[in-house]
Amino acid sequence: MTVESVFPRLEALLPHVQKPIQYVGGELNSTVKDWDACDVRWALMYPDAYEVGLPNQGVMILYEVLNEREGVLAERTYSVWPDLEALMREHRVPQFTVDAHRPVKAFDVFGLSFSTELGYTNMLTALDLAGIPLEAKDRTLDDPIVLAGGHAAFNPEPIADFIDCAVVGDGEQAVLDMTEIIRTWKAEGRPGGRDEVLLRLAKTGGFYVPRFYDVEYLADGRIARVVPNRAGVPWRVSKHTVMDLDEWPYPKQPLVPLAETVHERMSVEIFRGCTRGCRFCQAGMITRPVRERSITGIGEMVERGLKATGFEEVGLLSLSSADHTEIGDIAKGLADRYTDDKIGLSLPSTRVDAFNIDLANELTRNGRRSGLTFAPEGGSERIRKVINKMVSEEDLIRTVSTAYGNGWRQVKLYFMCGLPTETDEDVLQIGEMAKNVIQKGREVTGQNDIRCTVSIGGFVPKPHTPFQWAPQLSAEDTDARLTKLRDSIRGDRKYGKNIGYRYHDGKPGIVEGLLSRGDRRIGAVIRAVYEDGGRFDGWREHFSYDRWMASAEKGLAGTGVDVDWYTTRERTYEEVLPWDHLDSGLDKDWLWEDWQDALEEVEVDDCRWTPCFDCGVCPQMSTEIQIGPTGVKLLPLTVVNK
Amino acid sequence: MQRIRLRYTKRGRLRFTSHRDFQRAFERALRRSAVPMAYSAGFTPHPKVSYANAAPTGVASEAEYLEIGLAAVRDPEQLRAQLDDSLPAGLDIIDAVEVRTPNFVERLEASEWLVRLDGVEQDEAARAVALFLAAEQVEVERLTKNGVRRFDARGPVAALEIVAPQVGNGPDGHLEGESDVRTARPCAILRLVVRHATPAVRPDDVLSGLRATADLAPPVPAEVTRLAQGPLDEGTGTVTDPLALDRAAAPAGPVEAAGPRATASA
Predict the structure, then answer these.
(1) Which InterPro entries match (chain A) (predicted)?
(2) pTM summary value
(3) What are the residues of chain A with a beta carbon less than 8 Å away from any beta carbon of chain B?
(4) Terminus-to-terminus CA distance in chain B, angstroms?
(5) Can you tell me the ipTM of this complex?
(6) Which one in A44, A299, A390, B13 has a CA-CA gap of 20 to 30 Å to B43?
């Protein structure tokens, strides 16, 4: 059965919408395969606007991995802006893929990548536009399997009503495994309907199917237990971990859009995972262990990617890029190779203690010397011990002083507000740190015109971290603390004018907290928000705190729990957490001990350089740390190419 | 520095490419196909590219022009093919000449447009065209960044006529049939020649003029294609090739990349 393109109908709507180019597809390196020649078809969605979703590495990787397979097809779809949504509803144009403009409902799998919980309402918009029932229980064989992945999927319970399946961890191998299970089931004539294929997935232990688990509650609203309700469905679902990144050199042919997007560069993931052990960092906890891509693997990906895209910038991505064992050789090797091509290098995440000036010089050799950005995260030494971000103020001052001495004039510092045990004093220290940075800069350069920008986000406790038990700071307290800091910075006559101050108010953080640590009862809240018109919650101009709170009151009526119960309440050791049956490999007792260490301001080392401290991931997941150095250098390309 | 003038298109769905989008795409295509670009001096060097008179977003075009500066001499036709390969289908480079004459932009005196009006009967369109042409002046309004602006849309119109449906002329078959299979509805096609003036009168403005003079209100947005831009032959109301002068000034035979003329430098 051939599926028709909706483009002719969509095309008539495009002259009436903003930035129509984002809906027409045709990106360089995009793939359109023959529908009838494939037996398993995926629609991949990043549930945000095209300009944010297109550069997403996760979607790009899976898109290529799937399309490389014979008989498998993957296309992409993104959230449409409200202007087009209204026209699509009026003219009955369904949610479509941008590759061949096929209706999403026609695919076998509708896979969504959630890097944040704020995309949940956009999922509901897309399902509804696609003509797919919002709730999994109402779907039939005519509907795709709705699959959630990405970091937010490590607690898929708030969207359990809406998804058929969730996969946690690395997607590369997982999507291929899922493809095979679906292919076999289809070839057999789809025996047992949707339930059967979902059961086959669930039985592997690597795919979470919410409908096969019942949640029982205690009288006080806490969870009593989560029980499988089908024979053969395991009690816990494991995360997927890809070993040997060099075997997965994706994306090989990054997509190059015609529309402008948030990141326009050739991104190479230089390692996955992080064991620095920052206690607030969900990404660092759930992506263990550290697996480095080799220097030669990186060199090949950069070369092939630049040829395929024409990008002017290479981004070396990871959770803490300067921690790659051979980052110095990588940066120098790449800067040497591309001196004549005016290719800039960027290292989006750099720790203060891993920074060195030689590296910084290599990075800026072919491009601009813009500002330096560091994330001390906590203003006081004490709070940095609590969060295990072991960066001392001396480290920072030494680093910025070298940087200023080498020509940088601008430093940006990232912090969080609302960390466990935090007091006003910890936050006011942020201002002191900024003053010290400027003071040092003036000293080193002999100039008064030195800028330091502090940017502060609200801390949101996340599942699978030592802070998963922590109380979240209320929006009012967050705002009050940030106001004090602002007043103390503005009031400083000597430095105040040189300190840029950026912060987010506490309200969006409460909604994120509700969704992050929510359970299945939150589904009704998400649905109520969606039905009230909630969309694009990651966008300030679309986000409505009041709508979320009103919907929470409605959705949680009769449950005995409320927003505070989910956010500002501290959990105890005994409590069953909504995500306990999703296994990230981390030992819950280890996380608890680390939480206790945090409260006692005890730090923990990085297991890359010190003995194992039994977080549990490697034995649990049969994985291991993979790091260099390999001792190999990047050779000039003229030699490599011969 | 060798300079090359290129003619390119915006066809089919890629007509929704904005000018900024096209610029980025083109500069990346230059990198992918390793064209030896000349760069501007300064702290952040940019490749030397200048664009002329871009068609509005959503309007297709067979005749957009730009000029690039090269750090090494290249054969224009080879360069054209190379760049065309590197751009997505729909953004096609269809002509290239080495620059031998100045004042190119001044040569772009007028544009010829094809305006397809789906759902409009030919007779109705013909009546509106006649009324429009009979008017001395047709005041229209357009919303600009500085608010609503009123100006005459009639004066710069050098030609306006109903054309017989053409077959297989455009990509995606957009210029086919009077009541084609795509919509199974009537369809009128206008050919329009407009002098480039200030303020610029665009096909949209002429459509506003047709609405003002004859109440012509197409039920769906018009599909507009720029067919040509260049010198205007006032006698015949046709637009001629703006690259003709450069072509005529070229010496016989292809340019040799390593030949005696290869003395140009950045």
Answers:
(1) CHP03960_rSAM, Elp3/MiaA/NifB-like_rSAM, Radical_SAM_N2, rSAM, rSAM_horseshoe, rSAM_sf
(2) 0.92
(3) 7-8, 11-12, 14-16, 19-21, 23-28, 256, 258-260, 264, 306-312, 341-342, 368
(4) 5
(5) 0.85
(6) A299
